[in-house]
Design a protein that fits this description.
255 residues; single chain; mainly alpha
Length: 255
């Protein structure tokens, strides 16, 4: 009676299994961090739209009145180069302020927090499509394009677009990989290196966003909200007072 000798796992298969497990954990970590930074960007963009609507438009109005004051004074002092220069600067500033206020996104795109399904789907897209999970140049280009679209869709809260992005990548030729333990092991090791590199890059990006003036203003607004106050409305009221004073000054210099 012959004895059946159990087959031993090959060292390369064992190593590949370990690397795949390591990669899976890193992919999950990367997807979580990408979700975090995408959410942070979306929240800041939504707050910026709110700020521009409530406060920015009023600053644009104030800057326009100040430009008119400077231009009126320049006309009265036509031979004074200092007044002419001040009027030109005031007009440029007013135009920049107006453009910034008008560039805000449409109201229906503004949202406070992405809902659960959107977060979950974005996380899945990041796990499957992230450019740093590719070792092929053509595949990487495809991933970069789709990931950029995914970021825009996430910020807009466009769930259907995220679904289509995931379906598009799953069906594209670049998503098909070759066979062979050796080649697969090399691909997995390179993916691990790429994912680790991206993880190291995310933290400075997060710190830059968190430390931005916009983020600090949002934090202050949240603090006001906890005390039952509305920071943006209070800012708007202060600007309204400045607008009233500026209108009075314009009337005086024009009269």
């Amino acid at each position: 009676m012959s004895t059946i000798i159990p087959s031993r796992v090959k060292p390369e298969d064992e190593e590949l299994a370990k690397k795949r497990l390591e990669l899976a954990k890193l992919e999950t970590e990367l997807a979580d961090r990408e979700l975090y930074i995408a959410t942070l960007r979306a929240e800041l963009a939504a707050f910026e739209r709110q700020y521009l609507k409530i406060v920015g438009t009023r600053y644009a109005e104030l800057d326009e009145i100040n430009a008119q004051i400077a231009e009126q004074l320049a006309r009265q002092q036509s031979g004074n180069a200092q007044f002419q220069d001040a009027a030109q600067k005031a007009r440029r500033y007013a135009e920049e302020s107006r453009s910034a206020a008008e560039a805000r996104a449409p109201e229906d795109q503004s949202r406070a927090l992405p809902f659960k399904e959107l977060k979950s789907l974005y996380r899945e897209v990041a796990k499957r499509v992230h450019p740093d999970l590719s070792t092929d140049s053509e595949d990487r280009k495809t991933r970069q394009r789709l990931m950029a679209e995914a970021n825009r869709a996430y910020e807009r809260g466009d769930l259907e677009r995220l679904k289509r992005i995931l379906e598009e990548y799953e069906s594209c030729p670049e998503a098909v990989h070759g066979d062979g333990v050796g080649a697969e092991l090399v691909r997995v090791i390179r993916k691990i290196t790429q994912v680790k590199r991206r993880l190291s890059e995310i933290e400075p990006e997060v710190q830059q966003l968190v430390g931005s003036d916009l983020a600090k203003l949002e934090g202050k607004a949240e603090e006001y909200g906890r005390r039952g106050r509305d920071l943006l409305q209070e800012m708007a009221q202060q600007v309204e007072s400045q607008i009233a004073a500026a209108r009075g000054q314009l009337k005086n210099v024009s009269g």
